[in-house]
Amino acid sequence: MGKAAELLGITREELIEEFHKRGIPIRKLSKEDVIADVEALNYL
Q1: By its UniProt entry, which InterPro entries does this protein fall under (predicted)?
Q2: Phi, psi of 9 (to 5 degrees)
Q3: What is the DSSP string of 1-44?
Q4: How far apart (Å, rounded) are the C-alpha atoms in residues 35 and 11?
Q5: In this structure, are residues 15 and 1 in contact, taking their beta carbons and an 8 Å threshold?
Q6: Less Cβ around it within 10 Å: N or C end of the chain?
Q7: How far apart are CA 30 and CA 21, in angstroms?
Q8: Tens digits of residue pLDDT in 2-36
Q9: 14 touches 5 (CB < 8 A)
């Protein structure tokens, strides 16, 4: 989200707000989800 917002020239919060306006769901990751994803990437 942060990189997408940067490329669009807006803040992350503005991007999230725009997604909400357009009815685009945003998946919020828990700390455990992020840790599991990083661990999975380490095995590649």
Answers
A1: UPF0175
A2: 75, 30
A3: -HHHHHHHTS-HHHHHHHHHHTT---PPPPHHHHHHHHHHHHT-
A4: 25
A5: yes
A6: C
A7: 23
A8: 899 999 999 999 999 999 999 999 888 788 988 88
A9: yes
- Max CA pair span of the chain: 38
> What does the alpha-carbon distance between residue 19 and residue 22 come to, in Å, rounded to a whole number?
5
Which whole-number Å values give the CA distances from 41 to 16, 19, 35, 36, 44, in the listed order? 26, 28, 10, 9, 5
Cα 11 from chain centroid? 12
> Which tokens in the block code for residue 23?
């009815």
Which pair of tokens denotes residue 31? 């700390």
